[in-house]
## 1
Amino acid sequence: MKFPNNILLKEVGPRDGLQNEKSFISTEDKVEWINRLSDTGLSYIEITSFVHPKWIPALADAVDVVKKIKRKPGVTYAALVPNEKGLQRALEADIDEVSVFMSASETHNQKNINKTIDETFKVLRPVVQEAKANGKTTRGYVSTVFGCPYEQDVSIEDVIKVSEHLFEMGIDELSLGDTIGVGNPAQVQRILDELLTRFPASQLAMHFHDTRGTALANILASLDMGITKFDAAVAGLGGCPYAPGASGNVATEDLLYMLDEMGIETGVNQDRLLAAAQWIEEKVGRTLPSRNLQVAKAGCQTRA
Amino acid sequence: MKFPNNILLKEVGPRDGLQNEKSFISTEDKVEWINRLSDTGLSYIEITSFVHPKWIPALADAVDVVKKIKRKPGVTYAALVPNEKGLQRALEADIDEVSVFMSASETHNQKNINKTIDETFKVLRPVVQEAKANGKTTRGYVSTVFGCPYEQDVSIEDVIKVSEHLFEMGIDELSLGDTIGVGNPAQVQRILDELLTRFPASQLAMHFHDTRGTALANILASLDMGITKFDAAVAGLGGCPYAPGASGNVATEDLLYMLDEMGIETGVNQDRLLAAAQWIEEKVGRTLPSRNLQVAKAGCQTRA
C-alpha cells in the first residue's frame, strides 16, 4: 500500500450531520459551532443546505447561518443546493461553494429528490452553470454509490453515468457517497479502478458513513488508490435516525487520528476538533458515536 | 492491495471481553454464551483465563466453565495460562490450547504481570513445554506491540526480542496485540515488514482493539501483508473500563461484515454471531460498541 503526504478533510457535520438530527440546534449555536470548526484548521466546511425548509426543517435557517458565521480567510464555506430557487438563496447569502446532489440508483433518487435521474440532470444543469457564472466553485454528490436501500446493488455503469453527467455540467469536484454505510474495501478498489480511468483523482472525494464500522478501512483503500479528499463529520453525526447508538458519517476526529498517526498532513488540530465535537455532543444531548471523542472524554490509556 | 480467500477468526470475547467486565456474568450464562458461539461456525474460541482469581475475579470460574461447556467437534477451545499453577488447573479442565502472554514493553509487563520480561521468560518456558508434553497446542500473546501507556512508543527490537523468545520456547502461534488501541495502518506495515522476515505469516495473528476506530483499517493493512488470522470479540467487548461508550476488542461481527462483503470466507454465520452478541449485551446490561450489533437492532437501511 502507498499513502499520500497530505489529505484534504472536508467537514460536512453542520449539513450532513445535522440535517436529520432531532434535537433542535439554534441558529446561534450553529454559528458558534461553525466558528469553532473554522478555528480547528479545517479549510473546507459544508455548513448548511438550501433544500426547502419543508423537507429539512433542521436547516431552515440556512441564509441566517451563512450570513452570521465569522468567515475565516482560507476556509471554503459550502452548502447544498437542490435547484434554482435554492441557488437564489445561496447566492443571496453569498456561500463560497455550491454543492448539487443526486443518487446513482433510480429509486433512491426518486425517493430522495422526487424526480427521476434524467429529470434531476435537467434541474441541476442550470444550477451548476449559474453558480459558476456567479464565480462559485461547484461540487457534485453522488449518493448510493456503494449500495441502495431500495435496489440493493448499484451498478458501476449507473455510477459512471451520473458522474459523467455531473462533470459534463461543469462541477469542479465529485464526492462519491456510501450513503447507507454498506461499502467495503474491495468494492472501493473495484469502483475507483473504473472511475480513475475516466476522472482524475484530484477531482474525486470519498464520502463514507461508518454505519457498519468499515469507513476507515474504506478510506485506507481509497488512499491506496490515490484519493486525497475525504468528507467527514465531527463526532460522527448523521447516523440512522432509528438507531441512537449507530454511527453516521465517519467521525472527523477518528479519521484525523488515523491520518495523524500515519504521518499524513491535514493542517487540522485534533484537540480543537475534539473540543468542537464535545461542544456539539452537549448541544445534541446524547452520546455520539465518535470513538476518539468517547476515549478522550474518559481519559483512557494512550501512548502519549 | 491484495486479499486472501480465507480468514481464521479467533473469538476472544469470553476471555479478553469479560476479564475487565464489571457486570458479573454467572458460570451458567458464560457456558450458555460459549455454546452459542460454538454454533456460529467459529472454529476457535478463547473461553477463559487461569490467571489467579485474585487478579481476575470475573473469570474465577475458569475450571467450571471449561468443564461445563458443550464441546463442538472442530472447535478449538483455548485459555490464558500465566504460570505452572495455572497450567495445572488448565490441564485438569482439559483445555485444548494453552495461551501464554507477556508485553513487549518492560513497564507494562511489570505492571501487568508483576515480573520483568526476563523473569517472565523463565516462568513461561516450562508452561509451554509442559503444555506441549501434554499434547496441547500453544499460543503466545505479545501485548503493547503498537504502543505502551507507560513507555509511549515500543521499539520493534523489543517486539522482536519477545517474539523470538516465545517461538524459541515452542509456541505454535504468536498473537501481536494493540493492547490500548493506538495502532495505525502504516505502523502495521512497518512492524509486519520486520516480523515477516523472521516468522512465517501462518504463525502470526493480529489482535486489534478498536479504541480509536482504527481496528478494521489495521486489519486491512495486515491482510495486504499476508496475515490470515485475527482475534476479535463479539459485540466489541473489552473496552476501557473508564469509558462506558468506548470500544474494546474489534467486534467480531464488524470484522465479519467487512470480510463477508469482500468475499473472504470465514465459515462464520453473521446472523448467529449477531444473536450471540445481542445475548451477551443483555447480560452485560449496557449498549456495547459493535457497529453492526447496533445497526441490526435498530433495523437501519441495508443493501439487502
## 2
Amino acid sequence: MPVQRPFNFSAGPATLPEPVLQQVAAEMLDWGGSGMSVMEMSHRGKEFISIYEQAEADLRELLAVPANFRILFMQGGGLGENAIVPLNLSRGGKVDVAVTGSWSRKSAAEARRYADVQVVAEGSGRNIPGSANTWSLRSDAAYVHVCTNETIDGVEFHELPRIDNGVPLVIDCSSHLLSRPIDWSRVGLAFGGAQKNIGPAGLTLVFVRDDLLGHALDICPSAFNYKTVADNQSMFNTPPTFAIYVAGLVFQWVKQFTYAGLQGLAAMEQRNIDKAALLYTTLDASSLYENRVEADCRSRMNVPFYLKDDALNERFLAEAKAAGLLQLKGHKSVGGMRASIYNAMPLEGVQALVNFLKEFEARHG
Amino acid sequence: MPVQRPFNFSAGPATLPEPVLQQVAAEMLDWGGSGMSVMEMSHRGKEFISIYEQAEADLRELLAVPANFRILFMQGGGLGENAIVPLNLSRGGKVDVAVTGSWSRKSAAEARRYADVQVVAEGSGRNIPGSANTWSLRSDAAYVHVCTNETIDGVEFHELPRIDNGVPLVIDCSSHLLSRPIDWSRVGLAFGGAQKNIGPAGLTLVFVRDDLLGHALDICPSAFNYKTVADNQSMFNTPPTFAIYVAGLVFQWVKQFTYAGLQGLAAMEQRNIDKAALLYTTLDASSLYENRVEADCRSRMNVPFYLKDDALNERFLAEAKAAGLLQLKGHKSVGGMRASIYNAMPLEGVQALVNFLKEFEARHG
C-alpha cells in the first residue's frame, strides 16, 4: 500500500473516505464480535437490522429529513429510477421535465414510456433555463422532474426550484446528495445513486413524501413499488446489505467531520464550496483551460473543463496520473476533462490538482 | 477476531469463503497497485473492466455456459426478476409456471401483471409434482417458469425438467447457482441472486439465450431490458461493481477448489452432495428432528427441519449459537429450523452441526 494514496477524481463510483475503507477492512471477517462479515449476515438478523436502523437514523439526521418522508434503500441506480419514478408517481398522466443536461434528458425519454411528458424548459447544457416561474408548467401534471446536478455537464441548481402550482417536485440529486442540505419544503421526492458521495454502486436512495406513496401503476414491479418497499422497511427483497453498511459508515464520518469551525453537513458543504471556488478560480485565470458553464450554476461536485488544444489531452491525462491525480478524463459524450470533487476529496486533493494545472500550463500552455 | 469463526447457516446473505474475505480486506485501500479500492473505481476504467471481464470469463468456464448465452450482471434480486423476466420474455402472452414452493408461487403472482399465467403443476411444498411431461403445458406459452431450488421449502430439482413442446424453460436457480452444473440444453434463461453461493446481496446474475433477447414489452424499464443490458456489457447503468469483484474472487476460489480427487465445480458439487447426505442421514435417524421433504427432491443447499417439540425451539437456537452455529432459525413463513449449507460451508461445519444435533437430542430428546 502506498504511504499516500493518489487523489481519485472519478465521477462515480468515486473516492471514499480513507477511515471508512480502513474500518471496512478491519471488520471484514468479524463485525462487532458477531463472527460474521456484514456480507454474510441475514438481512433479517438483529446484527444487520441494527446497522440498517443506525444508517437510516444518521441519514435522516444529517439531511434533516422530515418525519413525513420515507427513506428507501433500493437498487437500480439513477437509470432505474428514471422508470421507477413515473411507474410510482405519474398515474399515467402528465409529467413536466426541465432539461438542463444529459441526465434530465434521459429521464424525460424514459418517463415517456409511462406518461405524457412535456419538456417545460431546456437549457444549453451550460446554464439553467430561468427560474421555475418562467417554465411552461402544467398545473395538472403529476410531478415536475429536475436533475439538480448534472454529473456530465457540470450544471447545478444551488437553490432548488420553487414550484408554485402545487405540483410535487422530483429531484434527481445523485451527484450532490449529502454534499449540501436539501430544502424539503420544495421537494416531493428525491433520489440518488450512492456511488458519488455515499458508498458503493448498487445502492439507490429514495426520499419520498408520504402522500406520494400508494399510487403506483399496476405494471410497476413489486420490488420497485415505493409503498411496498416502504411498508417492508426496504426489505421486501434482499437489500444491498454491504453497500448499506458502507453508506452507514460514511454517514458517521460526515457527522463527525469538522471544517472551518463547523461540524457535520454544514462543514462538508463549506469545504465543498471552498474546493469548488479554488478549482474554478484557477480554471478562469488560465489561458489553457476552460470551464464553459455559466457562473451561477457551476457544479460544486463535477467540474468539466477543456484544454484549448485538444492535442494535449492524452499528455495531460498521462502526466496527471504520474502526479497521482487519477480518473480526470471527461465523459465520452462531451469529451475534455472532468474533476469530480465529492465529499471524500480533501482540499489537499484539489490543491494538488490546481498545482498540477498550473505546472502543466507553464510547460505546455 | 476469533481464531475460529463460527459456522453461519444463513439462507442468504450467506457465509463466504474465508480466503475471499481476507483478500477483500487486504485489497481494500489499494487494488493491484492502482491506489484505489475497487469501490472507488469508475466502472468504465481499465482496472474495473479487467475485473469484470475476468469474472465473466471465470463464471462462463465454471458453468460451461454456451457461446449463445449472454451473462448479465444486474440488480434487483430474485423478486425483481419475477417482474423483469415477464417484461422481457412474455410478449404479453402466456406463461406457464410449475409451483413447488414459496418462490415459484411468488413468481407466478408477479408475472400476472404482464401475462396470462397458468399454474401447470403444483406440489405440496414437500415434493415435485411429477415430471414435466405430466404437466398441463401450453405449446403457445412464451416460457415455462420453474424454481429449481426452493430456498424456503427445501425442494430441489436435481435434474432440470425437460420441456418437450419447444417452449423455453426459465429457471430461478438463486439458491443452487454455482453449487452444481446446469444442463443448458434444457434452459432458455436462468437467474439468481448472488447472496447464496456467489457474493454480496445486490447482484443478480442472468443467463439468457440469444434468441430470447429483443422482445421486451414497451413498458420494460431500459435499465432492466435484457437486450439493452447485454448490448452494454452490463454497464448501461452503473453496475454493482464491488459485488461483481467479490463474486469474481469467489469464482476463482471455486476454480481452485479440490475435493475427493476432483477440482472446480465438480469438486464443489461432490462436497455439497456429501454435506447434504451427512445432514439428512442424521435428521432421518433422529426421533427429535424431522425433515418433511420427499427424499428424491431434498435440497442440497437449504435443509429445513422441525423439532418434534416446538417448545424446544428457543433453547435449540440459543444452545446452537453458544456452540458457534449461527442463523439456524427457519423462515418465518414455515417456522422450525433451516440449515443452509452453501458452497462456502465446509464439511467441518456440517459435521459440527450434526454433532450438536445429536448432543442436543441426547439432552432433550
## 3
Amino acid sequence: MLEQQLQFSLRDEDQLSLDLIEAQYTLKNTRDRNNAKSLVILVSGIELAGKGEAVKQLREWVDPRYLHVKADIPRLFTEKQTFWQPYTRFIPAEGQIQVMFGNWYSDLLTTAMHVSKPLDETMFESYIECMRAYEQDLKNNHVDVIKVWFDLPWKALQKRLDDMDVSEQRWHKLHGLDWRNKKQYDTLQKLRQKFTDDWLVIDGENEVLRNQQFAQYILHALKQLPKHKTTVRTKWKQAAIPEALFNPSIEMMDAAAYKAELKKLTRKVSDALRTDSRNVIITFEGMDAAGKGGAIKRIVKKLDPREYEIHTIAAPEKFELRRPYMWRFWTKLTETHEITIFDRTWYGRVLVERVEGFAKQIEWQRAYEEINRFEKDLTDNQTILIKFWLAISKDEQETRFKAREAVPHKRFKITADDWRNRKRWDDYLNAAADMLARTNTEYAPWYVIANNDKYSARIQVLQAILKQLKVD
Amino acid sequence: MLEQQLQFSLRDEDQLSLDLIEAQYTLKNTRDRNNAKSLVILVSGIELAGKGEAVKQLREWVDPRYLHVKADIPRLFTEKQTFWQPYTRFIPAEGQIQVMFGNWYSDLLTTAMHVSKPLDETMFESYIECMRAYEQDLKNNHVDVIKVWFDLPWKALQKRLDDMDVSEQRWHKLHGLDWRNKKQYDTLQKLRQKFTDDWLVIDGENEVLRNQQFAQYILHALKQLPKHKTTVRTKWKQAAIPEALFNPSIEMMDAAAYKAELKKLTRKVSDALRTDSRNVIITFEGMDAAGKGGAIKRIVKKLDPREYEIHTIAAPEKFELRRPYMWRFWTKLTETHEITIFDRTWYGRVLVERVEGFAKQIEWQRAYEEINRFEKDLTDNQTILIKFWLAISKDEQETRFKAREAVPHKRFKITADDWRNRKRWDDYLNAAADMLARTNTEYAPWYVIANNDKYSARIQVLQAILKQLKVD
C-alpha cells in the first residue's frame, strides 16, 4: 500500500487549489533545467467509481491551461503494436501534466477480459513487467508516472447502476464491461490486483474524500522535483574494438559482377520485404561517408515509395529535447508503414551524444538497456529489426571526403562537422565497440559490414537482409 | 497548360542536383523571415506512370534530410471528416518540403470511382472548389502547393502491366483500381481533367524525361520565394459595435431559481450532446473574466471526461508559428472526440492578434474568410459548431478582476496582461464587432450572451446549446 493512503486527511478546498496551482507553476518553470520533469497520471478503475468526477474536480482546482486530459476507449492489444505505441504522442514535454484515462493498463485488462482470446497468466505478468520497465525508463528521462485506481465494492456498484439515468447507462455500456456480471467483476478485481500494488487505490464510495485524495496525491507528486544525477560511480568497462571496425577488408568486386548480382538481389529483397507479413525496420549507423545512403538506395531500388518510409535523422529539435531521448523514435514508429528505414538512429545516444558530451555519463550508460528493451518490445510484436554498422578505414574515409569535396553536387554531404568528427575517430570506434557489445541481442543482432569497397558492401547488406528475413 | 510544360528541356543531372540542393538550403534559411515558405508537392496519376520512380530519383538528387515523403493508400471520404483533416499533420513548417503521394485529390478520385456510392458531378465540382480555396489559404500562409499528375496512355499502361513481375502486380492491385478495365480508365481520365488544369501533367512514357521534368518543376517552385505583403490598400470598414457588447443587461437570477434551472438544463444538455450523432464543437470567446470557464464547467457537469475534450488556448509555440495560423486548430480536430470545447479559439487571429499587432494587417483582414471556409468545411461534414461571445461591461470586469485578486486560489487567473488588455477595451470591442459582423454565418452563427449576471449567462449558454442542437 502506498504511503499516501495512510497519511490522508481532508483539507480546505481553496488552500488545496492554491497549492496545486503553485506546484503547477513550479513544475512549469523547471523546463530545460536540471530538476525538470513532466507528470503522467494514469487513471483506471471500476466503472462509476468516480474517476471522471475526480478528474473533473481536479481540472477545476488547477490552472486548466497546464493540465491535459486524454481519454479514450480501452483498445485490445494488436499483434503489430507494442503497448506503448498508441500513447507516445501524449507523453508530455517537461513542465507539462498529462492525465491518461485510457492507458496501457486499461488496454491490458480489456485484452485479458476479452472472452474469445484471453491472455494467459504468464503473458499477463510479462506485460506488467514490461510496463513497469517502460515507466522506469520514462522516469529516468524526466517523465514521472503516477497511477491511480478508483475502486468500488460490488454492492456499491450495483446500487449506482440502479440509480443511473438511461442515457448514462447506454454510454457506460459502450465504455466498459457488463458491470452487472459478478463473475466478470471478480475476475477483473483479481487481475488488477496483480499490478496495483504501486498504485494509489482510492475508494470511490465517498465523493468528497475521493476527489480530495486524488488531488492531494497529485499535489504530492508535483512537489517531488528530481535532481537528475549526471555521473555514475561504477567504472565503465570499455569493450575491445573488433578488428573489423578499424581494419575492414578490401575485397573488391568488379563492376560487371556487381551489376549482375545487384540486379538479382534488389529484386529478391523487394519481393521478400513485400511478402513478409511482419513490420520490417532496417537501420544504418557508421562513420561519415561509410556508404549508408548508397546502401539504402539499393534496398529500395525495386520498391515503390508508397511501400516504405525513410527517416533521415539529424539533431533533435527543441520540442524533442524536452521529452525522453527515445521519444522522437517512438513517435516515428506509430505510422502504418510496414517497411521503415532509418539513416542514423536511436543509437545516436551512445555514439554522437556520448562522444560529444550531449548526453551525460549516466544517460548514455543507461541507454543500452533502454534501447534493448525498446527493440525487444518491437520484435515481440511482429517486427523484424535489421541493424547495420557500415565500417570503413580511416584512410578510406579521407579518400571519400576528398572525392565528395571535388564534386559540386556532392559537396553538401561534407561539412566542417564531418572533419571535426574525424578527429575523434578513436572515440567513435570505442563507442561503436561498446554499442556492438551491449546491444547485439538475439532478437535484434547487428550486422557489421566491414568493407572499403562500396560494391561489395552493398551486396553484403542485401544478403544480410535476406538472411534475417530467412529467405535464401 | 502550365508554362513549365512548354519550357522544358533536358539538363545535366549533376548540375540539376546541385541547383536543387542549393535551392533547398535557400528555402531552409527563409525560416522565420519575411520571405519564408514551405513547399507541399501533391503527386497523383495513372498507376505505373512512374510517379514512384520520379520521387525516388528526386530524393537522390536533393539532400534527403530536408525532403519528407508521405505516402499512403487513397482513402474514401468519410462523413465526419473534412478532406483536409487526414493531412494537416503533414503540413510542413517553414523551410521544409513535403511530398504527398496520398492527398485530397487521390481521395476524391477514389471516392468518385467507388461504385456503390459514387459522387455526383455537382458534389465533385464543389469539392474541387473547396480544395482550391484550401490551397489558396495555405499559400497565403506561407505554404506553397504544387501539383503533379503522372499520365500514361491506355496502350502504354497495358504494356507495362504485361511486363510486370508477379509480386509487383499483387502490390499494385492493392493500391489502385483495376487498370485492365478500359471503361474505368476512361472515367478516371475524364474526372481528373476536371481539376488538372493547374497541375503539371507529365507524360510517364519516357523515364528520363519524366524524372527530369518533375525535378525541374520542383526546382522552379523552390526558387519562387514570396515577399509576403503586410498591408492592404482598401480602407477597412469597421462594423458598428452592437449595444449588447458594451451595455449588457443585468437581468439577475436568484440563486434558488438558478439552481433548479441549472439542474434541469445540465441534464438535458448532456443527454442532447450524448445522443447527437454529429460531432459537436462549442467555442468560447469574450473579454477576460467574462465567465468562459464557469460556463464550460456547467456544460460538462453531467458528462464523463471520456466523452469530451477541452482545449484551453494560450499563445502559440515556436513550431506552431512556423505553420499557418489555423494549423494548431486543424490538428486539434483530428482526434475522435465527438464533443470538443474550446476556451478561446481561432478567433484569436482577429481579436488579440489584431489588437496587439501580432498579425499583420493583411493577415487578420484575410482571416475572416479563412475562418468562414474552415467552419463551412466542418459543418458540411456532420459537425455542429456553437460559438459563444460572452459579454460583460467594463465596470463588471473591474469588479471581477478585483474579486479574483482577493482570493488566493483565483489569483492565477488574473495577471498584468489582463490589466493591460483592459486598457485596450475599445480596440477589443471594435475587433469583436467586426468578428461578429463577418463570421456570423448561417452554418455557424454566433450566440452573444450579454449579461453581467453569471447565473443568467450560464443558463443562456445551456439554452443556446439546446436550441442549436434543435432540442426543446
## 4
Amino acid sequence: MSTQPEHPAVLIPGPVEFDDAVLQAMGHYSEPHTGAPFVNCFGDTLSMLRKLFITEDPASQPFVLSGSGTLGWDQVATNLVEPGDNVLVLHTGYFGDSFADCFESYGVNATQLKAPIGDRPQLDEIEKALKEKSYKIITVTHVDTSTGVLSELKSLSELVHRVSPDTLIAVDGVCSVGCEEIRFDDWKLDVVLTASQKAIGVPAGLSILMVSGKAMDRFNSRKSRPNSYFASWKNWLPIMQNYEAKKPSYFATPSPQLVHALHTSLTQILSKPLEERFAIHKETSQKIKKAITELGLKQIPKKPEDQANGMTTIWLPGGMAPPEILPNLMKKGVIFAGGLHKEIAAKYIRFGHMGVSVTDPKRSDIDHAIAALKTSLAEVGYKN
Amino acid sequence: MSTQPEHPAVLIPGPVEFDDAVLQAMGHYSEPHTGAPFVNCFGDTLSMLRKLFITEDPASQPFVLSGSGTLGWDQVATNLVEPGDNVLVLHTGYFGDSFADCFESYGVNATQLKAPIGDRPQLDEIEKALKEKSYKIITVTHVDTSTGVLSELKSLSELVHRVSPDTLIAVDGVCSVGCEEIRFDDWKLDVVLTASQKAIGVPAGLSILMVSGKAMDRFNSRKSRPNSYFASWKNWLPIMQNYEAKKPSYFATPSPQLVHALHTSLTQILSKPLEERFAIHKETSQKIKKAITELGLKQIPKKPEDQANGMTTIWLPGGMAPPEILPNLMKKGVIFAGGLHKEIAAKYIRFGHMGVSVTDPKRSDIDHAIAALKTSLAEVGYKN
C-alpha cells in the first residue's frame, strides 16, 4: 500500500509519479549542510551519479545545484564558452530554441540547425554545418519534451569526433537521463545535463550535470571568468570535489532534503542493472505506441527510431483540441499534458511514461492510462 | 509529539529546525506544475509573501525561484544593473565580499564600504560615499551571518532617498526576513532578497525576492537584455504574474514540493501578527545575549543595536577553537556552527535562533542550548 493519499496519476513528461520512500526523504528532519551526516549523503550521491551516467573516468565531474533543469543550460553557456564564441544547436523542438536563447543571453553566437517538426537534423546536414564553421560546442536535445523526438547520440558523437574533434558535445538529457540509454564514457560525451523530476524520479528543484575531463580542461583554460555567479563552476567545482571527498565545504546552501531524496532514488535505481531499466522503459513505450497506433492515432515523430522511450506525443484526431479530451482523462484519474510546441500546441497531447509508473510492478498507471485514453476518446465521439 | 525522529537541534544560522507540517508538505504527492491545484497554491504563496514583506503596493513584485539564496544576488546583478554600472556594497562581513564578487562577475563595478569586524559603516561615511560617485544600487546585508552584525535599514533608506534618490536600495535579507522587522513599503526598499531555510522555516532550495515598482521600472527600461538566462526576469516576470493571477504558465519547472512547504510555513507565520513574531525573536535573542554575557563571553558586534535578533556570534575564551567545544554541544543534542569570517574563523562560534525553535512554545531548544553551552564550557575547563 502506498503511503501517499489517493491522487490522479501524473503521466506528463515530468514531474512524474514519485516513490513513497523518495517522498519520505523529502521530509527529512533538518541537518546542517556542513555536518558529517549530510556531507556523507551528498558525497555518496555524487558518486552514484557517476554510475547512473556510466562513467568510470575519474576526470568526469558531477554537479548538483539547487535550481530547475534550465540552470544546466546556464552552466554550459557561462562555463564552457566565452562571449563571441560560436555554438551549434541541433533543434528538434521548443527546447532547442530555448537553449539557443540561453547562449545568446551570455553573448555566445548560437546557430540552429533545424529539422521539420517531428524529424531531427540528419548526420550529413550536421557534417556539412560542422565543416562550414568552427564551433566550440554542439548541443543536442536527447529527447525534446515538446515533440517527443529522440536524438541518436552515439553516431552523432562519432561524427563530431571525426569531423570536428575540438567541438564539445553537450547533451540536454532532461527528459532522457534515467530512461534512455546513455553511456557517457563509451560515447565520449562532454556534458549531459538533466533535472531531478523526470526519469530520475525526484521532485523538481535540482539541476544535475556530468561533465567530461575534456570539458573541465576547457573550463580551466578559459581566458575570462564565467560571466555568472550562482552558475559558475569557479564557485562550485571545489564544493563538489569536497563533498565527494566527504569534506565539509560552503559556497551556497544546498538543499539537504532534495539531496536525500536523490540519494534514495539513485539507490533504488542502481539496485538493478541499468540495462534492465532502459529495457523496461523501451518495452513499455512500445506497448503504448502500439496501443496509440491501434487507436488509429499518430505520433509527432514519424520514424520509430526517432520516438522517445519515456514519453509519447499523440496527434489528436481531426480538429480536436487538448481541452476536449484532457478533462475526461482527469475524471478517470489520469493526467496527460497538452501541447508545448508553439506552432502545433493546440493539436496534440503528451503522455509521459518514466520512473516508478513504468518500473514498479505494483503500479498499474500505464495500463490504466491506455484504457482511460480509449474510453475518453470514445466519450468525445471519436471512432477509429 | 513531533512526527520527526529524534535528532540534534539544528541551531546554526540556517538551515533551522522545521515544523512537522512543513516537512510533511515537502513530501506532497506529485502534481503537474501547470495544473490548477498547484497553480492555486503557488499563486496564494506569492500573495502571502506580500504580507510577509509588509507591502500593499500592487507594483511590488514577488519572485520565487528554485535555487539557493545566492541566486538572489545574481537576480539583482543581472536584472537591475548593466555592465559598467557602479554599485555601492556596504560590508559587514563575508557576505558583502561575496555580493561584490557576484556584481563583478556580471561586469558591474562594485565599490565596498567596509567597517572593522563587528561594526558597520556609519551613516556619515555612507553619505560621503554617495556624494562622491553616482551609484545605481546600494546593497546592505541586513544580518551578516558571518559576524551577526545587524544593519539599520530605516535610517539608511532615509539617507539614500535624501542624498541619492535614484540609487536603488537592495537588502540581503537571507538571515533576517521572518525574524527581523522589515517594512518594505514604509521604509521604501527596492529589493529584499532571501532564502527559504532560515527564519521563513522551509528547507533550502528557494530563492525568494520582493522587488519594488521603482526597481521594476528600472528593469523595464534597461538598454541591454539581462546577461543571464535562468536568473533573468524577462523569463520569470510573466510566470510570476500568471501564477499569482492563478493562470498556468511555463518557463522552467518550479518545485511543487518546496512551494507547498513555503505555503504551509507562510500560513503558519501569518496566522499571528508579524509584530509578535519580531518581538519574540527579539526577546529570545535578549535572553541568549544576557546568558552569554553572564558567562563572561563577548559577541562580535560590540554595540547592542548592531546585534542580530536571529543569531548570536560568540568569541571563544582565550585560545579555544570551535572543534574543542562543538563536539561537547553535539553530545548534548545541540548543533552550533563554527566561524565563517575568514580572518577570525577559528576564534568564534555561531548560535542561530530563528523559526520554530523560538516561536513554538512546545519546544525547549533555546533553554536547552543555553544550558548545554554552560556545561560544555565547564567540561573543557572554562571558568568564568
